[in-house]
Amino acid sequence: MKEKTSIGKILPVMFGFFIMGFVDVVGIATNYVKLDFNLSDTVANLLPVMVFLWFLVFSVPTGLLMNKIGRKNTVMLSMAITFLAMLVPLIAYNFTVILVAFALLGIGNTIIQVALNPLLTNVVSGDKLASSLTLGQFVKAIAAFLGPIIAGFAAGSMGNWKLIFPLYAGITLLSTIWLWSTSIIKEEQEEKNVSILGCFSLLKDSYILAFFVGILLVVGIDVGLNITIPKFLMERCSIPLEQAALGISLYFVARTVGTFLGAIILAKYAPAKIFVYSIILGVFGFIGMLFVTNLVVLSVFIFIVGFACANLFSIIFTYALKRQPERANEVSGLMIMGVSGGAIALFLGMVSDYVGSQMGGVAVLLVCLLYFFYLGRLFTKTDAK
């Protein structure tokens, strides 16, 4: 039986979501690296691929690792790897070193995303899980929102956007110490006799399979927008990168507002209904982006898209955990493997290079969003049971 939830338990776990948000710096970093080394979209987008490839490789093994060393220890391992990743760019600045740094960041982020969501279930009650996961995404969104601003300030005022890395390293170290010193988190033991094949057997459940595809696409949309927005604004509005990069911050402001409101709304209303309303709003925003060239109006549509997509991940994740709660670690590992959908950035780069416009990439993301109408039906069926 879980102990009564206390703020002392929740805070260090929630701050872990802030560290989780560091991965979103790959969006603005890709744009700076492309500019610094004069790369094509396809080559530059290898950077986010290098990050999200590891979600495909390490997610399921991490779910099994949690069964052996515990969720809290797994989270701390992820923070140690993230700390190391932040130090690598301080050694040298070339494309190879940056690829290595973001590979480590991807590995660390894979582990923390797999472990932190189930760890949250140890400190909150089941009926508050959807709103708590959304609150975690709100904290993550704050980190994502601040990333482009910090990088832009470092580039503009200090002449070096890479100063963001030592700052992130220091914050990661503090978070690790805080969680390590929190000994009051009690973990429930799960079945130890599990395997990778057993974990993948979860996909035989048609609902789990649909949720997995949903995670693939929702992360693909999020990363795709993170990478594409600055280039899209530069193309459509003829503005420099420093100004266009603020479009990412606007997108994450919208996500931050959306997750904050979502944490409140999802505690009171059915997640399935909020999910469907969000999709409708998101489709409207994407269509607006495709047909508008005015910077102010385009910014409004970017905000709408960010707001609409804010709670999709946490709702899908919640329904996945509810589907088979007795196998939460394995379900989490499988779902977070879906975060490898961020590698869609490479495909978006290829599409943009092929059509000669960022419009192609935005159109692909709109098509991805349409899949969620199907998920909305599954959520409604699940709630009806």
Task: Give your account of this protein's structure.
This protein has helices at 7-20, 25-37, 41-44, 46-69, 71-87, 95-121, 129-157, 164-180, 196-200, 206-237, 241-244, 246-265, 271-291, 295-309, 312-323, 328-337, 344-355, 359-370, 372-384. With 385 residues, it is an all-alpha fold. It has a single domain, classed as MFS general substrate transporter like domains (Growth Hormone, Chain: A, Up-down Bundle). Helix 7 runs antiparallel to helix 12 (246-265) and helix 13 (271-291) packs antiparallel against helix 19. The two termini are 26 Å apart. Pfam families: MFS_1. It is a multi-pass membrane protein. The chain crosses the membrane at residues 12-33, 45-66, 73-92, 98-120, 141-159, 165-185, 206-228, 248-267, 274-292, 298-321, 333-351, 357-375. Residues 1-385 form the Major facilitator superfamily (MFS) profile domain. It comes from Paralabilibaculum antarcticum.
What is the radius of gyration?
A: 20 Å
Largest sheet: none
**Strand residue content:** under 5%
Give unreliable regions as ranges: none
Q: What proportion of the residues is helical, as a percent range?
A: over 70%
Quick one: CATH superfamily? MFS general substrate transporter like domains
Kindly report how far apart the N and C termini lie.
Answer: 26 Å
CATH class reads: Mainly Alpha
Discrete helix count: 19
Mean pLDDT: 83
Subcellular location: Cell inner membrane
InterPro entries: MFS, MFS_dom, MFS_trans_sf, MFS_TsgA-like
Protein name: MFS transporter
Pfam families: MFS_1
